[in-house]
Amino acid sequence: MTQTKTKFTGGISHEEYTPEVLLNPFVHRLELDTTYEKIKTYILTVILLPIRVSLICFFVITGWIFASIGLWGLTEEELRQKPLEGWRKKMKHVVCMLGWCSLRAGGLIVTVKGRQADRREAPILVAAPHSTFIDGGIVYITGFPSTICRRESGANNHIGKLINFTQPVYVWRDDPDSRHNTIREIVQRATSDLDWPQILIFPEGTCTNRSCLITFKPGAFYPGVPVQPVCIRYPNRLDTVTWTWEGPSALKLLWLTLTQPYSNCEIEFLPVYYPSEEEKQDPKLFANNVRAVMAKALGIPVTDYTYNDCKLMKKAKEMNLPFAPSLVEVRKLRNRLGLDKNNIEETLVNSTVTCRDCSKISYMEFVSLLNIPSNNMSAHQLFKIYDKENTGMIDFRDYLLGIYDRTGYGRLSPEDFCKAVCQTLALSKEYALEVFDQADRNQLGYITFDFSVK
Q1: Residue 330 and residue 312: Cα distance in Å, rounded?
Q2: Can you tell me the distance from the alpha carbon of 169 to that of 223, in angstroms, rounded to the nearest whole number?
């Protein structure tokens, strides 16, 4: 590990270890750096883009027509009660072929590795990492499996027929019991004796930049049935497909992708994962173990980021909070340093005098106040988050502002939760309490920092 001498204000010096980079999977940077890339893009925009858009529209519209024919005479209730049969089921092969043609028309070259298991072997396909809207094209490669999607998408006049033809499991946003109903339907489909399509699920729940695998939501693992992991890669020199919370817009990505001569996509079917009895009883353990297998195959690490984390960072950014992108990193580093298990910060928050001038404290003062080792790499990273200008000084009040857990056990009471979100995210107290009640479904009187409903 590289070591360098660093001198801080006040003549204090210490050994500083070069910190490892904290991954932020929700950020993607894309720029056309060279003149060649810019000229090529402009030329292909004029010559290639209109042709590709025309071909894609033709195949999508034709697929929509065939999907409409396949759904003719069926109600939504009938679609949810039993799988398609006879000529309707055969029509799905035609739609898949047209969908595959639309991908090829867009310049996407798909390479398939491994063997896709059938429904009897693995009722559920688990795909990751989820990094782009193009991932949706995997349904054409996998035989039009059922997906998990919002009800609003199925009601869309343009793509609703194509979505409904997969017989998806719908999520109803306006239904407070939507999550539980969705899980119940997944379990029923996965364990049914009827010939339902396989269910395709992206367990990360949001798009990332493929630098790691974030926490898998347990929905795909509640049935306790065998699942087949499906790894997705985009081995391209210029990454024009990655769509994250912070980065190029979908329209820009679509434009740049369609103006590339071609784009590569690799889909790898890993061996079917059969859960142990312990995993069948613990969906989160099942999810974590499958994620570990996929991360090993992909050659990337796993992190404990969640969908809620990226929503929090996005909201904080909208509120122009100075350390918005780093909220989750702070929580992770505090956990590594053991600060979430003691009451040092609670004491500091309640103390009237913590330092001579809390608006300017050095690194050595920082570690002294928190009683953590000065040569700890995580301590350096935590300080660095607040030292954006590399002055060697931070405002300690900014740090303490984020410490709302007065219990010291990683739990937030209604009062602490309201204080946190009202001050940092500018929510009203009434709305904050409403969010708290929704998160605390078991009426425990507290929620954890990872306040996903259990």
Answers
A1: 13
A2: 14
Closest CA to 329 of 380, 365, 369, 268: 380
Total domains in the fold of the chain:
2
Pairing of strands 227-233, 124-128: parallel
**Over the stretch 247-299, which tens digit does the pLDDT of each residue have?**
899 999 999 999 999 999 999 999 999 999 999 999 999 999 999 999 999 99
Among 269, 304, 339, the domain boundary falls at 304
Dihedral sign from CA coordinates of 197, 202, 206, 210: negative
β-strand partners of 444: none
Residues in the chain: 454
Instruction: Sort residue 371 into left (φ over 0), alpha (ψ -120 to 50) or beta.
Output: left
Task: Tell me how crowded residue 38 is: count the other CB atoms within 10 A of its CB.
Answer: 12
Domain enclosing residue 57, as ranges:
35-304
Q: Are 266 and 329 part of one and the same domain?
A: no
**Considering just the CA atoms, what is the radius of gyration of the chain in Å?**
25
The separation between CA 411 and the C-alpha centre of its own chain, rounded to angstroms, equals 24
Angle at alpha carbon of residue 102, lines to 99 and 106, rounded to 5°: 145
* pLDDT tens string 131-151: 999 999 999 999 999 998 877
Asked whether residue 324 falls in the same domain as residue 272, the answer is no
pTM for this entry: 0.72
What whole-number distance in Å separates Cα of residue 96 and Cα of residue 107? 17
CA neighbours closer than 13 Å in the CB half-sphere of residue 101: 16
Buried b (16+ CB within 10 A) or exposed e, 46-65: eebeeebeeebeebbeebbe
